[in-house]
Amino acid sequence: MAVWQNIKRLFINPDVQTEPKQQRSLSTVSQIFSSFFAPKAASGAVVSDATVLGITAVWRAVHVIAETIASLPFNAFIEDSVGNIKTYTKGKINNLVSLEPSMLYTSFTFKETMIFHLCFRGNFYAKIHRDSNGRPIELEILNPDSIVVKRSNITRRLYYDVKYEDSQQETLKDTDVLHVVSFAWDGLKGKSPIEVHKESLGLAISNTSYASDLYANGAQLSGILKAPGIMTDDQVKRLKESWATNYEGAGNRRKTAIIENGMDYQAIGLSPADAQYIQSAKLSIEDVARIFGVPLHMLSQLDRATFSNIEQQAIEFYQNTIRPWARRIEEEFTRKLIPETDKGKAYMRFNLNGILRGDTVARSNYYRTMFNIGAMSPNEIRRLENMNTVEGGDTYYVPLNMVDGDTVTDSATQDDLSQDKLAA
After folding, report:
1. What is the C-alpha to C-alpha distance for residues 326 and 333, in angstroms, rounded to an integer?
2. Across-strand partners of 138?
3. Do the Cβ atoms of 255 and 178 come closer than 8 Å?
4. Could you give the count of Cα atoms lying within 13 Å of 370 in the half-sphere of its Cβ?
5. Sign of the C-alpha dihedral, residues 57, 63, 69, 72?
6. Res 281 pLDDT > 90
7. I want to staple 140 with a disulfide (CB 3.0 to 4.6 A). Which of 127, 198, 202, 322 is the partner?
């Protein structure tokens, strides 16, 4: 019933008004219908949110990206006239992105949901609630399946038709919607990775179904029963029923079989089809890793993993997967939340150093290096570790044997002059 109501609303609902000469929808009819009817892959598998989430590699890959991004500190900053970076304190903007976007969820949940939407729909939408002065006071996550993105041919600006769960509808201006876009042909509406990679994910779903059927019958056909003579139909039926009751299924594995009437049991090794399934399952995990940009070792695929290459792959994951996601989010939040008067000076930024928080050795080495070159004071380090500041801890220290280049040049020039005077 809900599906029919949605289809009816798209075509014959008189409340929906369109202006064909002034606007065009960025969603095609096929894209609209894809939210109602899950497509099938060539393998025959139904590719939907539920079936894709049932792939363990997909579940883990999306969680790795989402939880990594969600765990990173996210704040608003502003650069003053002398180049010092300070926390942006105007209005509630910094609190919205760093602590509580809404009374409904925490900052972690907000960022985690954002990545879920981007990984499954290619778009993330959030309504910006503003006070009477136009300042942001709340960020409300919107269902990406309930939004139609349109663009005016006159103003060339985007606007968003939103349908809420209570059937209320609303049209929002682009300035009142945070819209983070994944890969897109036009830069305006992202492509769904699930739709783009339907065939690869369909193969993974088929592999999962095959494994379920395989193990439901005792993992594989492990042997056959050979009778010394011809059996009647009743004997065959009785034997099959007895064997199925006592020895088939995961709960009956490793039981000792009792064979009667001179019958012989002949073991069978792993069939070529089952061997091919194992290889295909590994390839499916690799496909998921490629789709989402997650290293195989983070999906518990450790066939070719070593300590050194795991460390390098982790670095590449942060550089090539996490950093691009972070930059997309930073730019959209800066564009929509920072007032025009502060643009160019104020901005949103993830602290990617937060990735190192779980690695004590790497974090200690980083702090030591920054302290030794005078880039960080003891109190700055203590703040990053959630420790109280200490008296005198705002002083910067540098090694005694280090001087700036101008000093070295001036000293060398003075030495040359002194040598010239002595020679004269």
Report:
1. 11
2. 129
3. no
4. 16
5. negative
6. no
7. 127
- The DSSP code for 93 is H
Tokens 């070593």 belong to 306
0.85 exceeded by pTM: no
Contact 118, 61 (CB under 8 A): no
Buried b (16+ CB within 10 A) or exposed e, 122-131: bbbbbbbeee
User: How many of the other CB atoms lie within 10 Å of CB of 93?
Assistant: 22
Helix (H, G, I), strand (E, B) or coil at 216: helix
The residue that leads in pLDDT, 97 or 41, is: 97
Is pLDDT larger for residue 103 or for residue 12? 103
CB 96 within 8 A of CB 104: no
Average pLDDT over residues 169-173: 94
Which residue type does 28 have? T
Residue 307: helix, strand or coil by DSSP?
Answer: helix
CB 395 within 8 A of CB 380: no
Least Cα distance to 15 among 157, 161, 158 occurs for 161
Residue 253 Cα distances to 96, 203, 237, 245, 393, angstroms: 55, 28, 22, 12, 66
Is the distance from CB of 80 to CB of 89 less than 8 angstroms? no
Per residue in 276-298, is it b (16+ CB within 10 Å) or e — as a string?
A: ebeeebeebbbbbbebbbbbbbb
Here the tokens at position 237 are: 């039926």
Q: Which of 13, 50, 48 is nearest to 161 (CA)?
A: 13
Q: What pLDDT, in 10s, does the model give residues 136-161?
A: 999 999 999 999 999 999 999 999 99
Q: Is 408 exposed, middle or buried (0-12, 13-18, 19+ CB in 10 A)?
A: exposed
The closest alpha carbon to 392, from 403, 402, 413, 378, belongs to 378
Long-range contacts of 103-111 (CB under 8 A, 24+ apart): 103/138, 104/140, 105/141, 107/70, 107/74, 108/70, 108/71, 109/70, 110/139, 110/141, 111/66, 111/69, 111/70, 111/72, 111/74, 111/329
Non-local CB neighbours of 245 within 8 Å, separated by 6+ positions: none
Nearest to 104 by CA among 135, 121, 126, 132: 126
Query: Which has the closest alpha carbon to 37: 164, 114, 145, 196?
Result: 145
99, two tokens? 């602590």
Contact 161, 147 (CB under 8 A): yes
**In this structure, are strands 23-25 and 346-350 parallel, antiparallel, or unpaired?**
unpaired
